[in-house]
Write a structure and sequence with these properties.
InterPro entries: AcetylCoA_hyd_C, AcetylCoA_hyd_C_sf, ActCoA_hydro, ActCoA_hydro_N, NagB/RpiA_transferase-like. The protein is of the alpha/beta class. The chain is built from 14 helices and 27 strands. Strands 1-10-8-6-2-3-4-5 form an eight-stranded parallel sheet.
Length: 439
C-alpha cells in the first residue's frame, strides 16, 4: 500500500472485494460502516462463512438482518450492545473474551489476518489523513494488519484531536462515500434515587485533583451530577469511555487536568459515546485527546496519574467480593471491557481508589431479588476477582474489601445488602463456613 493513492469506488464495488471465508473487520462503535454494510448484505446469497469482527453495534447491521440464521455471515464482538445481545440470543452473534486495552496486541500477535477492513472516518484532510473521530480504540492496529483497507467517509463524525487517531491516505486502498448520517447517540438516563444514594457514598471519597474514569450506566454518571453540585474542583479525566457526564463537568469548568502526570491539561479517552452535546464538545477541541486503547486502559499507564478514581457497575457480587458484570448465567450481556484494568490501575495509582457499584436488589418475574449473594448465578462470569476488589458500594453503604479476611468480607457485604436479605445471607455465610462460629 505504501505511497499509493486510494481509489474512490462505490459501496457495491467495495463489497465485491469480499470472498467466502474472508475475515472482515467492521471497526468499533461509531467507526462501523453503514453503506458498505448494506452493500455486503445484498451479496448474502452468494457468500459463505464470512467472519466479521465488530464492537458495540449502535445501529442494526444489515448483514445480520439479511441473514437471520447465520448461514452466510459469522459475527464476532469484542463487547455487546443491546443489539449485539439480541443477536447473541438468536445464536448469530458471538462474544470474544478480552481485556479491552489488550485488543491492539491481539491483532498484532494472535488474531487471524484481516482480509478486508472497513472503517468509517472523516473525509481526508489537507494532510491526507482520515480522522477516526471519537472512536480510536484499536483502529490503528486493524489498519496495520489488514490486507485491504477501505474507508467509508462521513463528514458528520466529529473531528477529534489525539494520537494515532486516523489513517493516512497512503495506507488506504479504497474510499467509499458514506451516507452522512450523524453518529449514533446513547441517550442519557435520569439518575434514580438509588443511583444518587450510591453516588453520595462515592462522593465522600473524591478529593480535589482526582483523575476520573467513569463507566457506562446511571450510577457512575450520577457521580458526575453530584460533582457538579459539590465544591470538588481541579479534576482530571483519564478514561476509556468519555460520557456526557464527564463532558458536562468539563463545560462547567470543574475539569482542568492540571494535576495529571500524563497528558496534563488534556482530557484523555479512547472512545466517546453519548448525545450530540458530547460530540459537539469534543469536535475540534484540543482540550480532549482521543488515544488508542492501549494508551488509556493498561494498568501500568493508568497508575502513573495520582488519585485515579475508577467508578464502574456490576450486576452481581458474592459475599467474598467476586463481581460478575457481564453475563446472566450463560447468557452474555455486555463484556469485560476495561473494568478489571481500571480496577487494577486505580488501586496502583498513588492515592487511587476503585469503586464497583450496584443496587442492592433487582426485580425478576415480579419478585425482588438480591444482587449480593452467597454464590454467583451458575455460569456467571467473574469480571473482577475478589483479590482485586477495593470499594463496593450500594445504596446502603460503602465497604473497602482490601486487606479483609473472608469472614470480614462476608460481614461487610451483608451490611451492603437490602435489609430483607441480610438474615438469610448471614445464615448462609455461617452454614458454609465463611463466618466461623463465634466470630
Amino acid at each position: 500500500m505504501g505511497g499509493k493513492t486510494p481509489r474512490h469506488i462505490s459501496a457495491a464495488e467495495a463489497a465485491a472485494l469480499v470472498k467466502s471465508g474472508d475475515w472482515l473487520d467492521y471497526g468499533v462503535i461509531t467507526g462501523q460502516p453503514d453503506v458498505f454494510d448494506a452493500a455486503l448484505a445484498a451479496r448474502a446469497p452468494e457468500l459463505r462463512n464470512v467472519k466479521i469482527r465488530n464492537c458495540l453495534s449502535l445501529r442494526p447491521r444489515a448483514v445480520l438482518e439479511a441473514d437471520p440464521r447465520g448461514e452466510h455471515f459469522l459475527w464476532f464482538s469484542w463487547h455487546f450492545s443491546g443489539y449485539d445481545r439480541k443477536k447473541h440470543d438468536a445464536g448469530i452473534s458471538h462474544y470474544i473474551p478480552v481485556n479491552l486495552g489488550e485488543i491492539p496486541d491481539y491483532y498484532r500477535r494472535f488474531n487471524d489476518p484481516v482480509d478486508v477492513a472497513i472503517i468509517q472516518a472523516r473525509p481526508m484532510d489537507a494532510n491526507g489523513v482520515f480522522n477516526f473521530g471519537g472512536a480510536n480504540l484499536w483502529h490503528r492496529a486493524i489498519v496495520e494488519m489488514a490486507r485491504i483497507v477501505i474507508i467509508e467517509t462521513n463528514p458528520a463524525i466529529p473531528l477529534c484531536h489525539g494520537e494515532d487517531n486516523g489513517v493516512h491516505a497512503s495506507e488506504v486502498d479504497f474510499v467509499i462515500e458514506g451516507n452522512g448520517a450523524p453518529p449514533a447517540e446513547l441517550p442519557g438516563t435520569t439518575p434514580t434515587e438509588v443511583d444518587r444514594a450510591v453516588a453520595r457514598h462515592i462522593m465522600n471519597e473524591i478529593e480535589d485533583g482526582a483523575c476520573l474514569q467513569i463507566g457506562i450506566g446511571g450510577m457512575p454518571n450520577a457521580v458526575c451530577t453530584l460533582l457538579l453540585e459539590s465544591g470538588v474542583r481541579d479534576l482530571g479525566i483519564h478514561t476509556e469511555m468519555l460520557t456526557d457526564g464527564l463532558a458536562e463537568l468539563y463545560r462547567a469548568g470543574r475539569v482542568t487536568n492540571a494535576r495529571k502526570r500524563l497528558h496534563p491539561g488534556r482530557s484523555v479517552y479512547s472512545f466517546a459515546l453519548g448525545t450530540r452535546a458530547l460530540y459537539d464538545t469534543i469536535n475540534d477541541n484540543p482540550d480532549f485527546a482521543c488515544l488508542p486503547v492501549e494508551h488509556t486502559n493498561m494498568p501500568h499507564i493508568i497508575m502513573q496519574n495520582e488519585k485515579v478514581v475508577a467508578i464502574n457497575n456490576t450486576t452481581q457480587i458474592d459475599l467474598q467480593g467476586q463481581a460478575a458484570s457481564e453475563s446472566d448465567g450463560h447468557r452474555h450481556i455486555s463484556g469485560t471491557g476495561g473494568q478489571l484494568q481500571f480496577v487494577r490501575g486505580a488501586y496502583a495509582s498513588p492515592g487511587g481508589k476503585s469503586f464497583i457499584c450496584l443496587s442492592s436488589t433487582y426485580e425478576k418475574r415480579g419478585e425482588r431479588r438480591s444482587r449480593i449473594v452467597l454464590n454467583l448465578t451458575p455460569g456467571n462470569i467473574v469480571t473482577a476477582p475478589r483479590s482485586d476488589m477495593m470499594y463496593v458500594v450500594t445504596e446502603y453503604g460503602i465497604a473497602n474489601l482490601k486487606g479483609k479476611s473472608v469472614a470480614d468480607r462476608a460481614k461487610a457485604m451483608i451490611g451492603l445488602a437490602h435489609p430483607e436479605f441480610r438474615d438469610t445471607l448471614h445464615r448462609q455465610a455461617r452454614e458454609h463456613g465463611l463466618i466461623p462460629r463465634g466470630y
